[in-house]
Amino acid sequence: MAPETFISVDVETSGPTPGQYSLLSIGACLVDDPARTFYAELHPLSDAATPQAMQVHSLTLERLKREGLAPPEAMGRFDAWVRAEAPDGTLPVFVGFNAAFDWMFVADYFQRFLGRNPFGHTALDIKSYFMGMTGGAWGETTKRALARRYPEHPSLTHNALRDALDQAALFRRMRSERRPDRA
Predict the structure, then answer these.
(1) How many helical (H) and strand (E) elements, i.e. helices and strands, does the chain have?
(2) Taking the CA atoms of the chain, what radius of gyration do you get in angstroms?
(3) Buried-most residue among 3, 60, 93, 160 (CB within 10 A)?
(4) Which residue from 24, 4, 5, 6 is spatially nearest to 14, judged by alpha carbons?
(5) CA gap 169, 19 in Å, rounded
(6) Which CATH architecture has domain 4-182?
(7) In this structure, is the dihedral angle defined by the CA atoms of residues 90, 169, 165 and 97, taken in order, positive or negative?
(8) How far is CA 150 from each of CA 65, 130, 145, 173, rounded to the nearest angstrom?
(9) Model pLDDT, residue 152
(10) Could you say which DSSP state residue 8 is in?
(11) Phi and psi (nearest 5°) for 17?
């Protein structure tokens, strides 16, 4: 088996699904070396946005139209960063808190703008990991529920890089608790 490089990824978007809405920012860090980070803000693909999504983060479509990277450039930079941090012979593993959401935007943008995804089909969901680790129910994987077990874990800031760093810390903590016979 190839050595694995766990990469914590978080995104902010203009709505709930790719194709209709835009990926606005990507934050990432190595789970086991969180000083190694990536961050990009992207030019929106359109003006489509839901009020709920835009209220979550401090990004504006107007500013990103002026200052955001073109999606092909942003994804090219992210691809280069992933490949540098998980060089040939290693397997980059996308790690997310509710990975289904973040993954679908990142996978869509990689395929759409680069025609490839450096993560392949590897995505690890922290919520699912916790559920398997504890034998608990899905309802016990919310941020609020996890805060009871991990009170030192900060709440979401909805800055993609800060959230990627915080979820990496949470995942490291969970991995340190796993049973040795189930490593």
Answers:
(1) 7, 5
(2) 16
(3) 160
(4) 24
(5) 31
(6) 2-Layer Sandwich (3.30)
(7) positive
(8) 38, 12, 9, 9
(9) 74
(10) E
(11) -140, 145
CB 141 within 8 A of CB 127: yes
Taking the chain (183 residues) in runs of 10, the rounded mean pLDDT of each run is 94 96 98 97 97 92 97 98 93 96 98 97 94 91 83 77 94 83 51
SS3 of residue 45 by DSSP: coil
Say if residues 122 and 7 touch (Cβ distance below 8 Å). no
Nearest to 35 by CA among 170, 179, 139, 164: 164
* pLDDT at residue 1, rounded to an integer: 82
Tell the residue number behind the tokens 């809405």, with chain if given: 21
Q: Which residues are catalytic?
A: 158
Residue type, 38: F
DSSP string, 19-39: TTB-EEEEEEEETTEEEEEEE
Note the pLDDT of residue 158: 85
Count of residues making up the chain: 183
* β partners of residue 91: 4
Beta carbons within 8 Å of 12's beta carbon, 6+ residues apart: 24, 25, 56, 57, 59, 158, 159, 160
pLDDT of residue 181: 55
Q: Is the distance from CB of 22 to CB of 40 less than 8 angstroms?
A: no
pLDDT of residue 122: 92
